[in-house]
């Protein structure tokens, strides 16, 4: 074994491929946003917690680390917020997003 033949130099970090990342699940994003738009206060909070809990369990079952799950849920949250903003804009006169 030579100095440049060490296994440490050949090591590559494990890569994770997410087949269907939450941010690309447009139907789920639209459904969640439309449900949240009809709820207010504690009802909206409770619904959001249910969605996050079920998605967290799903992502954990498919083998994502807690850090990766947090990133996925954050991007999903951002996508739902953007969809809700689009829905409000589309309801305004002259607004066709």
Report on the architecture of this protein:
- With 97 residues, the protein is mainly alpha-helical.
- It has one domain (3-91).
- The chain contains four helices and no strands.
- The chain has helices at residues 7-10, 26-38, 42-61, 66-91.
- Helix 2 runs antiparallel to helix 3.
- The longest helix is centred in the C-terminal third of the chain and has 26 residues, at 66-91.
- The N and C termini lie far apart (63 Å).
Mass-distribution shape: elongated
Mean pLDDT level: 87
Radius of gyration using CA atoms only: 20 Å
Order of helices and strands: HHHH
> What can be said about the biggest beta sheet?
none
Distance between the termini: 63 Å
* Spans of at least 5 consecutive residues with low confidence: none
User: Could you say which structural class the secondary elements and strand pairing correspond to?
Assistant: mainly alpha
Features:
single chain, 97 residues, mainly alpha, 65% helix
Structure, briefly:
The protein is mainly α.
Layout of strands and helices, then pairs:
Elements: H1 7-10, H2 26-38, H3 42-61, H4 66-91
Helix pairs in contact: 2-3, 2-4, 3-4
